[in-house]
Write a structure and sequence with these properties.
Helix content: 10-25%
Low-confidence stretches: none
Number of strands: 13
Largest sheet: 8 strands, antiparallel
Shape: elongated
Strand content: 25-35%
Distance between the termini: 77 Å
Radius of gyration: 20 Å
CATH topology: Umud Fragment, subunit A
Number of domains: 1
CATH superfamily: Umud Fragment, subunit A
Number of helices: 3
Structural class: alpha+beta
Length: 186
């Protein structure tokens, strides 16, 4: 009888440890709205990697889920475009990154629905904050509305699409090299 109780206790402890590990490293997220079309659709379910940014910094091109500004209820999903110390400008539908060292990077963004229709000139992104944009540039509440995402508000990096089955798979993130048209001097 003691061996049986010991086995049950071990099973319960292992189950609790697995549950706690999953809760601290992975989270489910449902896409709400059209701001990330065409890559992400209304109702699409994703798994978010909550542990990745404990070991590395967020990078340009990462699709992140974060707590939005102004204490709005639903979490947001957006793509990181600008990093701390940089500034972002949009001219004639092209995104330009003004880096801290004075270079200007022009981005080629294969993931957007259509080029942004309005020009934008942002200020320097504060330390530990990120400039984020929706992939559906003309239908997105994002950093062009005078806010950035603080590092501590980032829940995690979109990792895996789990629903609907037709969109199952790893989420594509674009590195700077994959987005770079050409560096320009200031």
């Amino acid at each position: 009888m003691r061996a049986f109780l010991r086995e049950i206790l071990v099973i319960i402890i292992v189950a609790v440890v697995i549950f706690v590990l999953l809760q601290t490293t992975i989270q489910s997220f449902v896409v709400v709205g059209a701001s990330m079309q065409p890559g992400f659709e209304q109702g699409q379910r994703l798994l978010i990697n909550k542990a990745v940014y404990r070991f590395s910094e967020p990078q340009r091109g990462d699709v992140i889920v974060f707590h939005p500004p102004n204490n709005q209820r639903a979490d947001y999903i957006k793509r990181i475009i600008g990093l701390p110390g940089e500034s972002v400008e949009i001219k004639q539908g092209t995104v330009y990154i003004h880096t801290e060292d004075g270079n200007v990077l022009s981005l080629d963004e294969p993931y957007i629905k259509e080029a942004p229709s309005s020009p934008f000139k942002g200020r320097t992104i504060p330390e530990n904050e990120y400039f984020v944009l929706g992939d559906n540039r003309n239908n997105s509440n994002d950093s062009r509305n005078d806010w950035t995402s603080p590092r501590e508000n980032i829940i995690g990096k979109a990792w895996l699409s789990i629903w609907p089955p037709s969109q199952w798979g790893l989420i594509t993130h674009y590195s700077l090299q994959e987005q770079l048209v050409s560096p320009m001097s200031k």
